[in-house]
Design brief:
globular; 603 residues; eight-stranded mixed sheet; alpha+beta; five-stranded mixed beta barrel; 16 helices
Length: 603
């Protein structure tokens, strides 16, 4: 029996599972005339005179079952008493369907029922359990176990399962060992906030949940396991958005005796393999690469969406010295050319101006220039710049008659990020961000450090164990902000799919890195002493990469949010509205853990 879950690996029916002999997605026209036994949930029923049609659903599909009053009135009446989501067992004979349904695999057949057993009744569900459900996000998350019955959600988890198996198979074929690392670890608060866990056996002390297995995978390299991977649970206590959850999964990998090219080559191969396995897309050429500096200058983002153009053009030299304070006082004036949009109305341009003024973008305004079909110029800044001057802008931007140019000015980094948001918005409006088109690339040569104005010190852009580019080691003390990291991200359609780096393996260089990041020797030893001790015993050169597994699945499923590929996700407040967590602890538990809860300060 094809697809029968009641079979073992030797293809012999398992006697322990006799509630069903067939799944609801299994029967086909060639099965006509055969007896069948199915079990599942009532999807819907339709009464048509003396006949009732009931759709029975399980994980594998839907089968239409027919109850005929002329054949068995008692069975017919029992069928009419079925409610949605009742759990039933039905036997009958497979027959060719008169009105076939081409939209489902079982649409050529139906089951003529000769028995019905109600295994469990159901309350009326709070929303329709169909792909186009009438339940909102909050309601569906509260009843997530019902939401998971919907075929669209189930398919996401099936895809996740298949990808996990194929990733394991691929990495195993490349000599990687899957090794589990601890979940209860030491807190090292140098990245996002840790989730902490009190230790009952060690009063006043706490574990942290790992933000990644970073330290342990480096220790595995010291231990001689030269190719490690893990599909690892990670935890970060940070503000949430569509592509973030407080607990998430990453494909975590590390390799010894490698340089940057070795790591990129290995995991480019993995990513290409998964694209071909899931989507049938064969990326035969090497993936394009941009340095971090190029990505920021051309797209305003270190995770650029390169499915469409509208690359940035620097107009600073053309915009200065014209008596217009907006551009005269700006560090950068930069624009994008939007092909074919010179016909945008004033209302549409005002909408774009309001878009960039939103707090999430943070710009003060927007300049626009239209190159009309007759070659003439219309602009919001025509009183400050002559038509001849603005034509020079359009020439530099490669504009053609009928194009619209959108320009912004200000602090260089902020302005690039703001224009990036506008570029993506225009890509959405013009339908240029097709979910069925994929454009992966590598971004390399990230800065090793980033400066924080508030604390007046450098932080590691990735983490403290990232190796500086060998060409820049002599700049660590003299030109700290311009030191490049031996770090790399793989980006798909404007999403950071994953990233990694070559690690520091020499104790002297690692100590210098800690010092530059403001660690005293005592603090560095307190937080990372066990790793530094391990490095004294011959650490090999090593590096690695972690891919966001949830994100990878959601990209290939064509989804905006990773929540839809996680069985039981949290909402944007980090709450599970289904099991009502987080929740207060019983006072007895708090006392056992030596904890006292302070009153929450009134805002």
């Amino acid at each position: 029996m094809k697809g029968n879950p009641a079979q073992n690996k030797d293809n012999v029916p398992c006697k322990t599972d006799m509630y069903r002999e067939n799944t609801c997605g299994e029967l086909r026209l060639e099965d006509a005339g055969k007896k069948a036994k199915i079990a599942g949930w009532v999807q819907k029923s339709r009464k048509m005179g003396g006949m009732t049609f009931v759709d029975i659903r399980d994980r594998y599909g839907v089968t239409q079952v027919v109850f005929n009053s002329a054949d068995n009135e008692e069975l017919f009446n029992a069928a009419n008493s079925l409610g949605r989501e009742f759990v039933v067992q039905i036997t009958g004979k497979v027959a060719e369907r008169e009105n076939k349904n081409p939209n489902i695999p079982t649409g050529d057949i139906e089951l003529i029922a000769d028995s019905l057993k109600v295994l469990n009744r159901s309350d009326v569900p709070p929303f329709t359990i169909e792909d186009n459900s009438d339940g909102g996000d909050d309601l569906r998350m509260k009843y997530r176990y019902l939401d998971l019955r919907r075929p669209a959600v189930r398919k996401n988890l099936e895809l996740r399962h298949k990808m996990a198996f194929e990733i394991r198979r691929y990495l195993d074929s490349k000599g990687f060992l899957e090794i589990e690392t601890p979940i209860l670890v030491k807190s090292t608060p140098e990245g996002a906030r840790d989730f902490v866990v009190p230790s009952r056996m060690n009063p006043g002390e706490f574990y942290a949940l790992p933000q990644s297995p970073q330290l342990f995978k480096q220790l595995l390299m010291v231990s001689g396991f030269d190719r490690y991977f893990q599909i690892a649970k990670c935890f970060r206590d940070e503000d949430l958005r569509a592509d973030r959850q407080p607990e998430f999964t990453q494909i975590d990998c590390e390799m010894s005796f490698v340089e940057q090219e070795d790591v990129i080559d290995m995991f480019e191969g993995l990513v290409k393999h998964i694209f071909k396995y899931v989507k049938g897309i064969d990326f035969t050429e090497p993936l394009p690469r941009l340095t971090w500096k190029e990505a920021m200058e051309r797209y305003g983002s270190d995770k650029p969406d390169i499915r469409f153009g509208m690359e940035f053009t620097d107009l600073t030299d053309l915009a200065k010295g014209k008596g217009f304070a907006v551009t005269d006082d700006a560090e950068l004036t930069v624009g994008i050319n939007v092909p074919g949009c010179a016909g945008y109305s004033r209302k549409q341009i005002d909408e774009l101006t309001e878009f960039v003024k939103r707090p999430q973008v943070g710009a003060k305004g927007l300049m626009w220039i239209k190159l009309e079909s007759d070659g003439s110029i219309k602009s919001s800044i025509g009183k400050f710049f002559s038509e001849e001057e603005l034509k020079k802008w359009s020439e530099r931007m490669g504009a053609k008659p009928g194009d619209l140019m959108l320009v912004m000015s200000g602090d260089a980094m902020k302005t690039r990020k703001q224009l990036c948001e506008l570029r993506l918005e225009m890509g959405n409006r013009l339908g240029l961000r097709d979910r069925n088109v994929f454009a992966p690339l590598w971004v390399i040569d990230f800065p090793l450090f980033e400066w924080d104005e508030e604390t007046q010190r450098y932080y590691a852009m990735h983490h403290p164990f990232t190796s500086p580019n060998p060409e820049d080691i002599d700049k660590l003390r003299t030109d700290t902000g311009n030191v490049r990291a031996t770090a790399y991200d793989i980006v798909v359609n404007g999403n950071e799919l994953g990233g990694g780096s070559i690690r520091i393996h020499e104790p002297g260089l690692q100590n210098e890195m800690f010092e530059l990041l403001g660690f005293t020797p005592e603090k560095a030893k307190e937080q990372f002493g066990f790793l530094m001790d391990a490095f004294r015993y011959g650490a090999p050169p090593h590096g690695g990469l972690a891919l966001g597994f949830d994100r990878f699945v959601s990209i290939l499923a064509g989804l905006d949010s990773i929540r839809d590929v996680i069985a039981f996700p949290k909402n944007n407040s980090g709450r599970d509205v289904m099991n009502e967590s987080p929740s207060p602890l019983d006072p007895a538990q708090l006392e056992e853990l030596n904890l006292e809860i302070k009153p929450i300060a009134q805002k």
